[in-house]
Amino acid sequence: MQRTEKTYHLRDILELRSHMRIAIDDAVPQDADGSFLMNIGYLRVSTDRQADLGFGLDIQEADIVRYCRANGYPNLVLFIDDGYTGTRMDRPALQDIISHISDYNAGRTRIRVDSLIVARIDRLGRTLLGTLQFLQDYIVCAKDSKNSTVNRNREDINFVSVAENFCRIDKDNPQGKFMLMLFATLAEFDRDQIVEKLKRGRMARVASGKWMGGGKTPYGYRYDKDSSSLIIVPEEAAIVREIFRLYIEEKTPPQKIAERFGFSGDRAITQILKRKSLTGCIVYNGQEYPGNHEAIIPSETWEAAQEELERRSVHRTSSHYLLSGLVYCGECGAKMRYQKWGSPGRKFVCYSQQTNKKNLIRDENCDNERYWADDVEQAVIEELFRLAYLGQEENSKAVGSVDPIGVLQGELAKERRRLSRLYDFEDEDEPDDVLREKILDVKKRMAHIEAQIREEEEKSGIEKKLRKARGILRTLRSTWPHMSELERQTVCQALIDRVVLYKNGVIDVHLKLQSYLISQENA
């Protein structure tokens, strides 16, 4: 009686996982060593939009199955990565394919990958380096792999791209390896083109004042798809305005504000305080564009919040000492600190004369005196009172009615729209060198306008700080007696750049923007 060998199918020898599915399950052939030869189809999409563009999983599967049936592949198991970008190779299904290849090479399994089939080369990977390294590590035989430390293949694994069928790896077609490298390069180039086009599209969108869409809508607004703009939510906008008022005027800590309005914590409040889109603009890639949405707070309020954020981050202290962080040694240049001296006395001591913070020492031999803090504070207060004349109205220039920054931003927006149109230009009658010259001219104009905007923003920032400083100086003598310790410290931090103490007892008070105040007074 003749003995018949047992026939095996994929369902008999394969342990399926969630990203695997058997598509063709005819008898599984075995090689001379008795190993089972398995054909793998690899499918990938990164987004639902790819399905709409004709790259969907069902289309890929149909192409791969059709190819395998037409070319005599007796079995096929599909490995599917649904929702994974092609720019990274650490995808679950692809890593499982690697495991099958590595396990066979190490003798841990008798299932051998005979062929790997993809619908298109870019389904395997969107980067040249990643795709080529995968082929070097796991597809070509070890003796042909020049740049791999993990390849243990005794011979090539057949590799086929259905859409680029002349781009393949098999024992009978060595030229296919060259074509495969070429198409891997084209896949990366195609991805770079897509990224650049999307970038230009986003730039054109924000330049026209439209919100970028996607991501988290700023608190205080809702996104309107029809207009592609932000619409104010009145209840939330009222909370935003109160958050800024509490933080700037009442110096309320962010955690207290968060507790008051039911936010998750102080970080949520800080994010609101830093969000410049609340002023009606759009910030994209570090550039600011006029938005179509209505502002919830004026720019001046936002600027004041940024100054307060900076002040609290630099001068974070548990005490309300009047001149904390402002006093410097006139002999060695090191900072000077408050130090308890008797009860309840305090003195200013140079950090160079201390040993607890070596990084603050400027001169170990500094012999500056130690000054009573009350005397120094009183001298500084009197100097601020004396400088009150710099805050008088006659010393301030009138503010113009035209907003130069707004005008320049409008011009910049026009140039950006012009640049976007040039990038999308497709008239074949326009020579490439002419188009490049036009693009270069627009970029030069944009760079010039951006430089003007930076200059005007610097001037505007200085003017705002000057107006604030004048306002404080003008009424300082009358309001000082009614201030709390924290309010007095805040005033000193806003007005004073540094206080320098010299060995001979001289005290120099340097105001922030002092040169501007004096120059305008003499103008």
Explained architecture:
There is one protein chain. The protein has 16 helices and 16 strands. The chain is of the alpha/beta class and 523 residues long. Strands 1-3-2-4-5-6 form a six-stranded mixed beta sheet, sandwiched between helices.
Short description:
The chain is built from 16 helices and 16 strands. The chain has 523 residues and is α/β, with parallel strands linked by helices.
Element layout with pairings:
Layout: H1 10-13, E1 20-25, E2 36-45, H2 48-55, H3 57-70, E3 75-82, H4 92-105, E4 111-118, H5 121-124, H6 128-138, E5 158-161, E6 168-169, H7 175-207, E7 221-224, E8 229-232, H8 234-248, H9 254-261, H10 266-274, E9 281-284, E10 287-290, H11 299-314, E11 327-329, E12 336-340, E13 346-350, E14 371-372, H12 373-386, H13 404-423, H14 432-479, H15 485-495, E15 496-501, E16 507-511, H16 514-522
Parallel strand pairs: 2-3, 2-4, 4-5, 11-15
Antiparallel strand pairs: 1-3, 5-6, 7-8, 9-10, 12-13, 13-14, 15-16
Helix pairs in contact: 7-13, 9-10, 13-14
